[in-house]
Amino acid sequence: IASFVEDPAERQRLDEAFGELADTRGLVVDLRGNSGGNLGLAMRLGDRLFSTQTRVGSFATRRALAVAGVAAMDALPDDAFETFGGYEVDAFEEALTHAGAVRIVTGGRAPTYEAAVALLVDNGCASTTEAMAAVIKESGRARLFGAATAGRMLSSRRLTVMDGYTLRIAYADFRTPGGLDVEGVGVPPDQVAGDGDAAVRAATSWLRSQR
Q1: Which three-class secondary structure state does DSSP give residue 104?
Q2: What φ, ψ does residue 167 adopt, rounded to 5°?
């Protein structure tokens, strides 16, 4: 998956691919070099990997912290969060603007791939891709192979400034369900593997051991 693009047609392509792969005994998902993108395709991947609705991360803005009277996202009470399970990034942005804090859920909406899954990651993985990798690793749904991700997770907006420059401002923090902060840290693989075919060989070797 080269990019998590915001396109219903790409979600359809993902569904078709999983339909073709349904009877296989192991799957390698290659996310190397995927610098992120929007929500929809990542959510659909979650639907295919998780058989029941699963919380896959939380976002919060400074507005949510101010309303709750706390200094950090980790101190927000449960009732500060709105639940979001859609595919459209505009709907997510609206929910985040309205509530200031949102919990993302996916899974249980499509036939689930039941066999073992290996995820290939590297330092080109960022943003949405890092969130997906972190949650899948934390849940134990897949094993990660390759190199640590970039540690560039936070949602940001681009502002135009003088002389043709632009400035990106982070506007929402993120945590995995287990409370992991990915920003500036990245997601380490379960097994470090070299570039190219080395990571594929490591992943397929592990998959064979799971049969």
Answers
A1: strand
A2: -130, 130
Collapse the DSSP code of 137 into the 3-class scheme (helix H, G, I; strand E, B; otherwise coil) and give the result: helix
What pairing do the DSSP bridges indicate for beta strands 27-30 and 117-121? parallel
Interval 44-69: pLDDT, tens: 999 999 999 999 999 999 999 999 99
Which residue, chain included where needed, has tokens 């859920």? 105
Beta strand 166-175 pairing with 155-160? antiparallel
Alpha-carbon gap, residue 175 to 186, rounded angstroms? 12
40: its two tokens = 């929809």
pLDDT tens, 139-174?
999 999 999 999 998 877 888 998 989 998 888 999
pTM for this predicted structure = 0.90
Report how many helices (DSSP H) and strands (DSSP E) the chain contains, helices first: 6, 9
- Paired with 103 in beta bridges are 58, 83
DSSP label at 152?
A: -
